[in-house]
Amino acid sequence: MNKTNPINPLSTDVPQPDVFAVHAQSQNHDDGIAPEFSRRETQRWWIKLFLQPLLLLACGAALLTGLGVAQRMGWLSGGGSSSGSAHSHAAHANTKYICPMMCTPPQSEPGRCPVCAMELVPATSGGGSSDTHSIHLDPAARRVANIQTVSVQSVPMSRTIRSVGQLGYDEGTLKMISAYVDGRIERLYADYTGVVVKKGDHLALVYSPRLYSAQAELLLARKAHDQSRTESVGRVPESNRKMYDSARQRIIELGMTDEQVNQLEQAGEANSRMHLCAPISGTVIEKKAVEGQYVKEGEVIYELADLSTVWLMLELFPEDAATIRYGQKVQAEVQSLPGRPFEGRVAFIDPSVNAKTRTVGVRVVIPNTDGVLRVGDYAKATIEVPLGDKDGLVYDPELANHWVSPRHPHIVSATSGKCPICGVDLVPASELGFTDQQVKAQHVFVVPRDAVLMAGNNSVVYVETEPGRFEIRRVILGPQCGNDIVIRQGVREGEQVATRGNFLIDSQMQLAGNPSLIDPTRAQPRMDDELTPIMMAALDKLSPEDRQLATVQRRCPVTGKLLGSMGAPLRVEIAGHSVLICCRGCRAALLDTPEKYLAVLANPRTHEPDEDLPPIGDIQMDLPPTGDFQLHESHPNAAAVSSDEVPSTPENLRTPDEKGSDR
Fold it and tell me: Which of 200, 213, 326, 447 could make an S-S bridge to 451, C-beta 3.0–4.6 Å?
């Protein structure tokens, strides 16, 4: 029986367990299960860390996959309404497909280009209100593209042509001193290269026995002539006179001057030694003999050059050479004499273009009275050419009412006469393209060079006709003057042209299927009756029968281009009809659907492009068309391609390159 504690009625006499003993037991039990419990808690924590995100990602992926399957199966629609679906189908129906190389007009169905066989790509819109010649950009897009414009200015301007050339000898003053007779050089007075001589100076002393014999004959003929004057018979004096004249002429041809012959006759004694005299004043530029050397008749001893005038040889581009004329003034600055200007005049313009450098040689005559100009030195030349003069006349106050030598432009006279150098009659300066009255400077249209996009023979600018509307303009360029370039045709004064961002505008025009830098001719109106010289030359390669057929057919039924625009046309016999196509790329399309293109030939109007599409236009490039290299098989005597002989199977329509790639 339990007894109650009198102090604590709730307590009993039941013996209480020892706290320390229980704690000891518990401690022993926990030491056994602690490692297992710790491992379970760690695994549970890692599972919570990765499992929940993986479940969320799996659910999201399953949701997206389900939405995609539902949309593909048609359970979900992108527009959310029937009107949206109809609008999508209408937009797809209005999509036009263009060739990346712009070979053909935009097509209404996808496929391949019949000319270059490239895959057609959808044409993007150039703006909601764009037309076939322009695009519209909103202010935000304009700021992003950083498009800047400037106005076309009309200013008086002269073109400055700059070039670098080299000084050379005046070839008209070069002289060769040769031995007139066989002999030995006993003395050289001009004994080094570069010595300056004057006309008549002694250059060398030559010993020649032949010259001695000729002198003796002259003295005997002179004596006989003097003695025969007293004789009465008329024939003897006349004969002696002829002998004397012949002997005198012979000795002059052996190199003696008239002065030397007169001295010989006065002395009355023959001399086997003769002095060679300088025929002109100049500089010895080459010495080819030494004292004591035996020389043959005609062997060169000296080469002289008159350095009172020198030539400046320039190489100009053909478009620069076309603007200058004979006698035009040239300012030159020599490299060895900086800051000292020299003036010369154009003496010769090469009539041909160098095939290697594609430049035109121009020769300038510069007076060198002081002798400071050295042959071989480099010089910078500057030529001022006025622009805009329709008559092409140049005003030069030094040539106004003066006469000029037609061979030596530095010879200018106030009166008529003969040129003191060549003896040719002087001509008025007006006959050489110069005017006697001062010409008023003409105004030309100029824009910054950055405003013009050029590719080959194509040059275009983009004109902002309205705020945000940029229209393509094909322009004809003039010369470039510094940072500006002259535009001869295509713009008007005051129009705004894009100077920055114009490449972005051009790329948008290409994506829209509009005329662009690649093919700006599409911006021109279609001219059915106009054939370029290149097209006519291509048609002339045809036989007379095919030439007559091309005159009747005029256009390729596949591309709609004028025959000859892609080189010499090809003839195809199909369904009993002879059809000309512009290139080999059109043959496959013609053989696939002959009824369609025969109908086009029967009614050409059915092949006209839609009114809302830009016409492809006739090719007006000066370069040979790209299709020429594909038409070497087209010869006037070549046999026509018949549809009976060549079945229109896919294997036969493949090119040799495609067949070779399979092998």
Answer: 447
